[in-house]
Design the sequence.
């Protein structure tokens, strides 16, 4: 049961997100009306979150930089197809998720619990052993599950936002997250840390 304070915080966050969504729509409209420099504001706002999302999916910082650039080029080229009844951040996140998944398919890497490729030495040093095992297990999940885990728990998106981003129903998000958590639990119970 949520406390009154938690409800108030959630309401403020929802209002802030709506304000940001309205501003995003205004910027998109400006770009479509020929003011192409307005797109720079969208890039500045979403470049870091998109990059962080891609890193969490593909675990390669250098490759994530390139993919992030490609995402914004694609978004700019496809801006006319953006539907104003959707949130821009969900739309750009969907482009980012697809680009990251395409990169994973190109790599065709199968990672076992004993390896974690693509994470820089500096990043690996920052993660404790337990977090490393969790990251390895997430990477071993089917893509339809691992992406949902990243969006929900690392990007802290609501079920509704995840559903919009992935173009699936909230019910499907909840169902797949349940399945993903079950699979993670089974994998992690085999280690001495969980």
Sequence:
């Amino acid at each position: 049961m949520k406390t009154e304070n938690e409800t108030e915080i959630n309401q403020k966050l929802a209002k802030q997100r709506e304000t940001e969504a309205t501003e995003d729509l205004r910027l998109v409209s400006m770009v479509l009306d020929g003011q192409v420099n307005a797109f720079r504001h969208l890039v500045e706002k979403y470049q870091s979150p998109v990059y962080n999302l891609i890193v969490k999916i593909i675990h390669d910082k250098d490759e994530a930089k390139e993919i992030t650039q490609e995402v914004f080029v694609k978004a700019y080229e496809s801006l006319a197809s953006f539907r104003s009844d959707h949130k821009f951040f969900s739309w750009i996140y969907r482009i980012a998720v697809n680009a990251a998944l395409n990169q994973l398919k190109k790599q065709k890497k199968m990672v076992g619990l004993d390896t974690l490729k693509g994470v820089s030495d500096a990043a690996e040093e920052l993660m404790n052993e337990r977090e490393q095992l969790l990251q390895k297990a997430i990477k071993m999940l089917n893509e339809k599950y691992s992406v949902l885990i990243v969006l929900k728990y690392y990007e802290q998106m609501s079920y509704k936002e995840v559903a919009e981003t992935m173009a699936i129903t909230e019910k499907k998000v909840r169902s797949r997250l349940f399945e993903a958590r079950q699979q993670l639990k089974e994998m992690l119970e085999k280690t001495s840390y969980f």
Summary: Residues 109-119 have pLDDT under 50 and may be disordered. The chain has two domains: 1-108, 110-194. The CA atoms of residues 105 and 115 lie 18 Å apart.
